[in-house]
Description:
By secondary structure, chain A is α+β, with helices and mostly antiparallel strands. Chain A is 49% helix and 11% strand.
Amino acid sequence: MRCHDICENLSAYIDGMLEQSDASLVEQHLESCPGCKSEYDDLLVTVELVRGLPEVKPPPGFRDELKERMITGGFIESVPKPVSRRLFFRRWVGMVAAAAVIFITAGIAALWYDDRGMQLVPGLEEQVAVAPEPEQNRIAGRAGGSTEQADKMMALKDADSAGDDLRKESAPSAAGPEADNYSVTPEELEKQEEPGEPEAPAAAQLRSPAGGARDEDVVPEDPDNIENNLMFTALTDEENTARDAAPLGTGDGPSQVVEYSLTLQVDDKQKTIELIDSMAAKHGGFAETRQDDADQMLITVPFYNAQRLVEKVGRLGAVTDQQSEQKDMSAEIKQLEKNIGELKTREQNLAEKLQQNQADQTEEKELTAVREQIAGLQAQLNEINTSVIMSKVELKFIED
Amino acid sequence: MRYTDEDLVQKIKDGDQDAFDQLIHRYEGKIYSVAYRFMGNHADAGDLAQDTFIRMYQALPGFRGDSSFATWLYRIAANACRDELRKRQRRRSVSMDEMIEASPANIPAAAGEYSPEETVQRHETQRQVQECLNRLSDDHRLILVMREIQGLSYEEISGMLDCSLGTVKSRISRARNALKERIKEQGELLNRGCRHNEKGGKQNAMP
């Protein structure tokens, strides 16, 4: 092996995840190559620094807040006469322990299960219920039924496989035994992540809290950049390789915002909603029915599962209208990163001056302002990154 | 008498209200740490850790003890981190200053064995490591939290992120190298890391 290959393997070597023969090669090489040895030492220290980070205590009031959230989130009924917060807490825990939670379990399990590979258990979504979160209406249930799939879906299929390629870029060539104590056998995982009992009672529906208005549809516009939208449609192996070889920490994530809209003609809307809810959870996302319009649903789902989910949803009824829209955000992301970088340089200069007591009042103020700007831009960047990671699927139902 | 986790879980299932409190008390430090290392600030970490416990509470009836409770809970936490990627921005109102600022709580529990100077130095090192973590991409930070802070196996991570073992290997490798570069930028950090670790760093991975 050459130095480059050795360095690629150092991380797995540290975790004991190399085959014995590869591990021996690495060891031999490290003995004779000071450059790689130094890389190895630095990597090892890095790993140890992170692993050595101490436990962080939650701030005071953490548990009180948790309790309040569980109450205001609508998981539980309020108790009329709380003796004290603590007692109150204990009382409601008991009140709802038996009732409100069974089907949620399955949703959580389904979330994990889905991300492990939904192909393993086809049809699982027919059985699972849904994980609620405070902001959403969620309904457990089972349903069946599939009809036709719209032609338009075909155009998007390739995009899905491209997304898969991104995630599954390299083959497991040197899968050694796991060297730590945390491994769980696939059987264990499977058992544990089976959906819960199908008894999920309708009575256990969670109440939807008031104020369901969300503004997550806000996506920065970028109408001029459509031609760069290659990522989901035509990423070749070479491009994937190039992506992998890109410098660390830069240009590392997806940069496309993808949104779908779908009009679905169904026999039984309620049943379909229940099923979609469960499917969304299985795909690592969540579905919400619109507070103001029961014929509409919004699904938020990780970009790499969006296409598959849309396909599946399309099979639940007759698709009468389907659209997808992609926007390339890479220019915005780049610009924001550049601006943040410049501001940080300025911040550093100012901070150094301040440290050496050479800064005047104006510069002190500027430092504050610069930091605020950085925070603002960082927030914008995060927002874009979030919208890139989570795709939106808007659904409209027409009942037969 | 000290109940096992599994005893407490059974008690909660049977409607014992105190048991839930006890379980939270037992795990809030671990779960909060994961949330803090991932989110990089206390405001968001509190929300995320609470999300995790709410999910745990909801999921408890389905917990059948196929794995240890700790492993099970850690998986919920990891999933909560992963899901948080999508919505953290909506809540973010914390400045970068707070994000990179270590809190007083962020002091090693075992500080007593160090001199005051060492403790300060150690604290500073940890603050800088967290700062380096904060500067990574979310994906890199997520996989490092899963691997280094939570101590999840490659197989578990592969399951949670729905990708192959080979991909997990290369992602962990890339994330570690990205962090290594950030740490190198901090100059002395690597050398100090050596010294601290020679003295025996406190590991916070799960038992």
